[in-house]
Amino acid sequence: MINAVNPLAERWNDVPESDWEDWHWQIKNRVMTYDGLKEILKLMPSEEIGVKRSKGRLLMAITPYWLSLIDTMRPTCPIRRQAIPTAEEFDVSAFDMEDPCGEDKDSPVPGLVHRYPDRVLLLVTEKCAMYCRHCTRRRIVGSEAHLTSPQNFEKAYEYIRSNHRIRDVLISGGDPLMLPDETLDDILKNLRAIPNVEFIRLGTRMPVTVPMRITGDLISILKKYSPVWVSLHFNHPKEITKRCKKACDMLTDAGIPLGSQTVLLKGINDRLSTMRRLMHELLKVRVRPYYIYQCDPARGISHFRTPIATGINIMEKMRGHTSGYAVPTYVVDAPGGGGKIPVAPNYVISQAKGSFTLRNFAGQIFTYHEPVEEGEVVRVSHQGQQGKQGKKEVKTAETKPAAA
């Protein structure tokens, strides 16, 4: 398990454990101002500029727990870079977009995105415990979008109820675990009461940024409306602390399935060794790696984006070199609202009638022959594996027509 050892943690030595373990205390004591952050951390020039200007683009809010993980001796600390604004956020590139996933155009009622035929995204709050600097939904996250309006919820429920093809609802935001337990209970109750809703997912990063949010009361609510799947968001192995593991254990021990979505971020997790270690650590805490996302072209986060080739190369070096459970799907969320497009190394060398020529993770070549239809006469030149193993003996086989 990853353990954080750094001088910042000592700052809260005098805080009673009952307060530190209270997620409400964590939220109340977030660092949200330049003066507050400078008091506890020596800022780099780029951070000085970014923090002072952050209200104009995306608020800064960092929980004491997350701050306690920052390596103060490393300006490139992945925990630090995800939380503290920098001047680079105000460098807007030619391809940056306000709404890179095209959610607004696919929103039939406020707070609901309906892009895929059988599933919808329900945005229930614009608030997060910590505002990640790579946030793709920064146009509304941290704002006063009033997504928690009861009127909006009722319109969303009615839309889902009236569209019988919708069977899957993802609750997101912001972070839905920022809502009071009573509000979450009400949302889940209303969704579970809709006959066509089979599958409910809840997307949250709070078990990572403030794991104290996972309480016995919350677990009871999630179990009451089971099955509810929880989608987490991990970007670096340093995020998987003993305290985070405790939160994940509480969820999985209660029978709540966990998956993780990771954003490919330049300088944070764009090395094979880092990404593979993250996936292994996730499996150790019973979280199934689900997606690696190519960083979206949202305004002000170009400094986090990598070439797509970087992601493909990582996937190339993971498939076949580690457990299949540790290999997520690498996707590009098509700019403008095209949805998730899987991107992977090309394992198909060629295709002909009745056969595919494929390569495996080690670069060896194989031919797969498809089933022969009854009555069809074919001659198959069966070639075994090549490459490092060499070429096997070629055999000929013939299938004759069935007797009349």
Question: How are the elements arranged and paired?
Answer:
Elements lengths: L16 H4 L2 H6 L5 H5 L6 H9 L10 H4 L10 H6 L28 E2 L5 E5 L26 H13 L5 E5 L8 H12 L6 E5 L2 H4 L6 H9 L3 E6 L8 H12 L4 E7 L7 H13 L3 E7 L13 H11 L10 E6 L4 E4 L5 E5 L2 E5 L5 E5 L9 E4 L12 E4 L6
Parallel strand pairs: 2-3, 3-4, 4-5, 5-6, 6-7, 7-8
Antiparallel strand pairs: 1-2, 8-9, 10-11, 11-12, 13-14
Quick structural summary:
With 404 residues, this protein is of the alpha/beta class. The protein has 13 helices and 14 strands.
Structure description:
The structure is a single chain. The model is unreliable at 384-404 (pLDDT under 50). This protein has 13 helices and 14 strands. It is 27% helix and 17% strand. The longest helix is centred in the middle third of the chain and has 13 residues, at 150-162. A nine-stranded mixed β-sheet has the order 1-2-3-4-5-6-7-8-9. It has a three-stranded antiparallel β-sheet with strand order 10-11-12, with no helix packed on it. The protein has helices spanning 17-20, 23-28, 34-38, 45-53, 64-67, 78-83, 150-162, 181-192, 206-209, 216-224, 242-253, 272-284, 308-318, and strands at 112-113, 119-123, 168-172, 199-203, 228-233, 258-264, 288-294, 329-334, 339-342, 348-352, 355-359, 365-369, 379-382, 395-398. It has 404 residues and is α/β, with parallel strands linked by helices. Helix 8 (181-192) runs parallel beside helix 10. It folds into three domains: 7-90, no CATH class; 104-342, Aldolase class I (TIM Barrel), CATH 3.20.20; 348-398, no CATH class. It starts with 16 loop residues before the first helix and ends in a 6-residue tail after the last strand.
